[in-house]
């Protein structure tokens, strides 16, 4: 380990824009595995900057830390995602992103006809829920969110 380049938690935080407390939290989730110096300080491999960047980018795409952790767990111990890994992971992400885009477009289109529609008939309103029939599908505005 003598030839490996290590950085402090402060440097990782500074380079990635991720708060020190979040980095510690990532460690508790197993997303990061720093070593400890003789004085007990966390030391990260320089490549962990890329790992943290991968985590934050994945979060921006809307993936949970649990989902991100599942992908990172498939990598050999301590290795950060390579281009080949990212290609494989992005294919998996793409399907989920495409599904969410489709759902958002559908919701947007339904909302266009719903907000401020001024309809005078509750029988044609997608928010009207006589006898609470939508409760069988779950909480929320089910007639707007799903095709009931």
Written account of the structure:
The protein is mainly α and 148 residues long. The protein is built from 6 helices and 3 strands, in the order E-H-H-E-E-H-H-H-H. A hairpin with a 5-residue loop joins strand 2 and strand 3.
Briefly, what is this?
This protein has 148 residues and is mainly α. Helix content is 50%, strand content 6%. A three-stranded antiparallel sheet has the order 1-3-2.
Record the SSE blueprint.
Layout: E1 6-8, H1 9-16, H2 20-29, E2 35-36, E3 42-45, H3 48-60, H4 65-73, H5 83-112, H6 142-145
Antiparallel strand pairs: 1-3, 2-3
Number of strands: 3
Beta fraction: 5-15%
Strand order of the largest sheet: 1-3-2
Tertiary shape: elongated
What is the SS-derived class?
mainly alpha
pLDDT < 50 stretches = none
Mean pLDDT value = 80
Observed structural traits:
148 residues; mainly alpha; 3-stranded antiparallel sheet; 6 helices; 6% strand; elongated
């Amino acid at each position: 380990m003598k030839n490996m380049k290590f950085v402090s938690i402060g440097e990782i935080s500074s380079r990635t824009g991720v708060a020190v407390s979040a980095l510690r939290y990532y460690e508790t989730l197993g997303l990061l595995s720093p070593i400890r110096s003789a004085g007990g300080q966390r030391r990260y491999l320089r490549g962990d900057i890329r790992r943290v960047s991968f985590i934050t980018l994945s979060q921006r795409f809307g993936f949970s830390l649990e989902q991100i952790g599942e992908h990172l767990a498939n990598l050999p111990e301590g290795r950060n995602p390579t281009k080949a890994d990212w290609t494989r992971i992005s294919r998996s992400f793409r399907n989920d992103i495409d599904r969410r885009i489709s759902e958002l477009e559908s919701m947007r289109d339904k909302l266009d006809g719903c907000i401020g529609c001024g309809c005078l008939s509750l029988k044609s309103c997608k928010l009207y829920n006589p006898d609470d029939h939508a409760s069988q599908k779950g909480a929320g505005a089910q007639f707007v969110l799903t095709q009931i």
